[in-house]
From TrEMBL:
InterPro entries: Sec_acc_SLAP, SLAP_dom. NCBIfam families: acc_Sec_SLAP, SLAP_DUP. This is Accessory Sec system S-layer assembly protein.
């Protein structure tokens, strides 16, 4: 793995910068701090075959690394290489200054940053293959970014940085109004929606669901259904086509339809109201009892 790309044997220096975070921010590992500085010892992952010359190379680079404070995790860039297929390989030390070994069990998102901190590539990595990072250790590894995750045509060979993307603390679930709704809704109606979103239980992490707000049959026999589209994930969700069934108080399906939308976007950790209109020909029951109803995406 470490010999994935060749290095210039006449050059014994690392090209990348360092990115260091507190172990609590990355791993949730809380530990007491005495204020001492840590010199990390070179460590190779299990099942990695490496020659003596390479060992000397990594040992030399490791000796040149700056000291870390206690309880930190750091990425120290060594080399970067762009392949003809568009993939970008980054060789870096992963350093652990905790007084105990740690494992990165959950997938983690890494960023390749340019000289101005602009994001050159972004990808989620599974680092379980590294095994345990021993206490006060420095582990060389190669991180391969797939071509689809690389955002630029040329990767600079100096002044770059491999960095952790730390998860932002999740704030409260909030209301997100489409611009047309923002302009047309009365302030009192906006306040009611905001209060509703605040008081109801938010969707589970990663879940997208629908909550009925209002339904009515108009004079032409069309059924108007207003739903709160609730996004509990950390990513924005775009809806382009949505099949919907509506059941009335008797549990009967009273309307069926498939709605095409111009990429309706529901931002991460927000709820957005939207009205779906079933024309009369899609209404299956004219005398529907809408005193109690629900709308859902049919399975299959």
């Amino acid at each position: 793995m470490l010999g994935f790309f060749k290095r210039d044997k006449n050059k014994i220096a690392k090209d990348g910068e360092d990115h260091t975070v507190d172990s609590m921010d990355l791993l949730g590992e809380k530990a007491e701090t005495t204020g001492k500085e840590v010199k990390t010892k070179l460590h190779f992952p299990p099942n990695v075959e490496i020659g003596q010359e390479e060992r000397y190379y990594y040992q030399f680079l490791n000796n040149e690394l700056p000291l870390l404070k206690e309880n930190q995790i750091s990425l120290s860039g060594i080399e970067v290489h762009s392949a003809e297929d568009g993939t970008v390989s980054v060789k870096a030390f992963l350093r652990n200054s905790l007084p105990k070994g740690v494992r990165i069990a959950e997938p983690i998102t890494l960023l390749l940053l340019g000289p101005d901190e602009d994001v050159l590539a972004r990808q989620e990595f599974n680092l379980t293959g590294l095994g345990e990072l021993p206490a006060e250790s420095s582990t060389p590894w190669v991180y391969v970014f797939n071509a689809k995750n690389v955002r630029v045509k040329e990767i600079p060979q100096t002044d770059w940085k491999l960095a952790f993307e730390l998860k932002k603390a999740k704030g409260p679930h909030t209301l997100d109004l489409e611009e047309s709704w923002e302009k047309s809704l009365a302030d009192t109606d906006k306040e009611k929606l905001e209060q509703l979103v605040k008081t109801i239980k938010p969707p589970k992490p990663g879940e997208v669901n629908f909550m009925g707000i209002q339904s009515r049959l108009d004079d032409a026999g069309a059924l108007h259904v207003t739903l709160l589209i609730r996004n509990g994930s950390e990513k924005n969700v775009k809806l382009e086509q949505l099949p919907l069934n509506v059941e009335d108080a008797s549990g009967e399906v009273v309307a069926k339809g498939a709605f095409k939308m111009e990429a309706l976007e529901i931002k991460a950790n927000t709820s957005k109201p939207w009205t779906f209109i079933f024309p009369k020909e899609l209404v299956l029951k004219e005398d529907a009892d809408l005193s109690k109803w629900k709308a859902y995406v049919p399975q299959g």
